[in-house]
Amino acid sequence: SGVIVLSWYPPGMADENGEPTDDLVPVILDYAHKYNLKVTFHIEPYKDRDDRSMYHNVKYIIDKYGGHPAFYRHKTSTGRFLPMFYVYDSYVTMPEIWANLLTVSGSQTIRNTPYDALFIALLVEERHKHDIHRSGFDGMYTYFATNGFSYGSSHHNWASLKAFCDSNNLMFIPSVGPGYIDTSIRPWNNHNTRNRVNGKYYETAFSAALLVRPEVISITSFNEWHEGTQIEKAVPKRTGQVVYLDYKPHKPNVYLELTQKWSEKYRKEQEQWLM
């Protein structure tokens, strides 16, 4: 455990509200190493993302950062250590295109090359599970911190998704979050707000994730203040119209403590499952 998943765009690219960030990666890797953390990449839906550009970008990442001691490699069931890439909004690209890259017989295949890796697709709707399997992905994650927002982010669907993954040799990676409120940037989205209930929402999500015995649990997210999913230390603060939510009556680091508590619980339970 202890893996940071970094939102990543190719050099010179960024989302419409941000700056290019690839040049920050070396600094983040160095700091991660200092604190005994690993780093992997959340590949964003950059312009013209397809089988060819993905091949080049995966090659770029592994060539440039793969030698760093903080670069994450996941131990697979066959004992190989492979890089791991989360692919955000993977469903916007057709399964046929992904299959070129991700299946052994694909025209752009990355399989059994020095750039092979575990590729994890975003599952939003139930039907995506079949597309993900057909595409040649190695697993799926659910990303959204709002229970009930999508099929994938609804806790009550995790057991059947895990069963589907188990029977198709895929990893199921449920994503948990501490709550959700993005009305400062999406005023119309009030119905997707989820109250933190003094940490209970976060604990409920972890509890639901542990029930399906996943190999990996992902946390969305560390510092999305504008979506109210931050878990790092928070004190009362406002800027202009925006009031940032704090964790009162709890201490500023209550969510880091909860994260530690559930990580330890998860580790202990995993030892039991594997016996």
Automatic annotation (TrEMBL):
MF annotations from Gene Ontology: glycoprotein endo-alpha-1,2-mannosidase activity
Keywords: Golgi apparatus, Hydrolase, Membrane, Signal-anchor, Transmembrane, Transmembrane helix
Enzyme Commission numbers on file: 3.2.1.130
Recorded topology in the membrane: Single-pass type II membrane protein
UniProt xrefs under CDD domains: GH99 (cd11574)
InterPro entries for the chain: Glyco_Hydrolase_99 (IPR026071)
Compartments in which it is found: Golgi apparatus membrane
Stated family: Belongs to the glycosyl hydrolase 99 family.
UniProt keyword Transmembrane present: yes
Recorded GO CC terms: Golgi membrane
UniProt-recorded name of the protein: Glycoprotein endo-alpha-1,2-mannosidase
Catalysed reaction, written as an equation: N-{alpha-Glc-(1->3)-alpha-Man-(1->2)-alpha-Man-(1->2)-alpha-Man-(1->3)-[alpha-Man-(1->2)-alpha-Man-(1->3)-[alpha-Man-(1->2)-alpha-Man-(1->6)]-alpha-Man-(1->6)]-beta-Man-(1->4)-beta-GlcNAc-(1->4)-beta-GlcNAc}-L-asparaginyl-[protein] + H2O = alpha-D-glucosyl-(1->3)-D-mannopyranose + N(4)-{alpha-D-Man-(1->2)-alpha-D-Man-(1->3)-[alpha-D-Man-(1->2)-alpha-D-Man-(1->3)-[alpha-D-Man-(1->2)-alpha-D-Man-(1->6)]-alpha-D-Man-(1->6)]-beta-D-Man-(1->4)-beta-D-GlaNAc-(1->4)-beta-D-GlcNAc}-L-asparaginyl-[protein] (N-glucan mannose isomer 8A1,2,3B1,2)
